[in-house]
Amino acid sequence: MTSTPLPDTQAASTATPVDPAAPATTGRATSPLVTAHSQLASAVSVLGYDEGQHRMLATPRREIHVAVPLRRDDGETVLFHGFRVQHNITRGPGKGGLRYAPGVDIDEVRALAMWMTWKCAIVDLPYGGAKGGIAIDPRGYSTAELERVTRRYTSEIMPMIGPDTDIMAPDMGTDEQTMAWVMDTYSVNRGYTIPAVVTGKPLAMGGSRGRGTATSAGIVHVTAAALGEAGVPLHDVTVAVQGFGKVGSHAAAIFAARGATVVAVSDQYGGVRNDAGLEMDRLFSHVAATGSVVGFDGGDPLSNDELLALEVDVLVPAAVEGVLDGDTASTVRARWVVEGANGPTTTEGDRVLAAKGVTVVPDVLANAGGVVVSYFEWVQANQTYWWSEQEIADKLEHRMTSSFGDVSALAKQEGLSLRDAALVIGVQRTAEAHRIRGLYP
Ligand code: NAD
Question: What is the distance in A from the centroid of ligand 1 to the CA of 340?
């Protein structure tokens, strides 16, 4: 594992410790890595750690950058860039999703891997944090092409992954079929079936009941807990959800099933609004038929910016990073922002929301339900013993509400935002594991 040479690419540059204050290399206005480093710096200053500890926590342990060539169905060869980053593996194997999106770059993957480290520690799973991605727009490729891309990427990063070293799961642009291809490629090369190398697999080959909706169910559990602290029942609130993919769509449906009024949803093509509440069954049928929420006849059209600015109780950004920056955050009229996506709020966005009195339930807590049930899936796969749907739902609810309780108690005790409190818990647990294990040699 550690002997795997890093290719001579930008990934290799991390042989030198990352300066936590250094700007990221991505050309975006606000790189997710800048946001992730700024959040870590804030937690480190609360915890009073020195510069050496800060660098240990900021620097990914291992990174790989691979070329992923694809022979297209028409015979043409195209090339993609793929990445896998293990940000921290001190508390256990790396754990984190695999993203297929055109904008994927090494800094985005580093940020997402770092958030996975804190997230796993906050909900107290025996994992470190990792993430992977390929810079590809999956909508432009056939199923057979995506299978070839996935199998080639898996082969290229094979030395880094494994059921005891680094375990993948679906993220943006990937799904349970992608995980099945990763698992099959890994297993064929090892010579026997190894279901625990990925989570978020299809049920028919060792997936867990409840995994497909776990992130969304977790979002609703922490929202209910946050509302509960203000004495507001879930069935009294209005909700807007940005992103209608694996996370956002099920979150909207679960909110509605629990009595909340989901007044707006959107995807990358646009949104739809109905103040009386969107009819979920018909909306899901429309999306299944057309591939988008746009054009749904049970509401009126609205843009993503309009959705973020709606006067609702709860806003759930569940699409991409950086949507709530200083400008868009100033338009938010929701009382609670519950982050379904990873990194949807920039540091400036956070400041603006705090000044407006908006309570932000941070991503590393709010969307942790997915990795919690991924952990349950991994435990079940390792035991080859499968739990009932109810057992999983109960254990998930308990883990999410108790983690919210820990974060909220610390926030109140120390006068911190929920984000700072969550990060302090995650960073402290990780640093404690470093301290107990000691520095080798
Ligand atoms: P997905 O690919 O299934 O869905 C993404 C959705 O976002 C789609 O509806 C897409 O149209 C929409 N979208 C993309 N770009 C957009 C834009 N610029 N504006 C508005 N909408 C846009 O992805 P997913 O798995 O639902 O992941 C969504 C977010 O949740 C990501 O940040 C991901 O990292 C995070 N997350 C996912 C999981 C999981 O279990 N899948 C777990 C934790 C966190």
Answer: 8
Its pTM stands at 0.93
Write the pLDDT tens digit of every residue in 53-102.
999 999 999 999 999 999 999 999 999 999 999 999 999 999 999 999 99
* Dihedral (Cα; 60, 61, 67, 69), 10-degree rounding: -100
- Give me the catalytic one of 95, 119, 131, 201: 131
**pLDDT on residue 29:** 62
Q: Dihedrals φ, ψ of 241, to 5°?
A: -125, 120
**Ligand 1 mean position, distance from CA 319 (Å):** 4
Q: Which residues contact 342 (CB under 8 A, 6 or more apart)?
A: 32, 111, 112, 115, 321, 363, 367
Task: Indicate if 395 belongs to the active site.
Answer: no
**C-alpha distance from residue 18 to each of 57, 60, 75 (Å):** 10, 8, 41
pLDDT digits (tens, 9 = 90+) for 220-255: 999 999 999 999 999 999 999 999 999 999 999 999
Q: Which residues pair with 166 in a beta bridge?
A: 94, 162
**What span, in angstroms and rounded, lies between the C-alpha atoms of 115 and 109?**
10
Q: What 3-state DSSP class applies to 71?
A: strand
Instruction: Find the helix or strand (DSSP H, E) in which 101 lies.
Output: strand 94-101
Question: Position of tokens 């973020």?
Answer: 308
Q: Is the CB of 242 under 6 A from ligand 1?
A: yes
Nearest to 97 by CA among 133, 64, 56: 133
Ligand 1 centroid to Cα of residue 341, in Å, is 6
d(CA 323, CA 311): 17
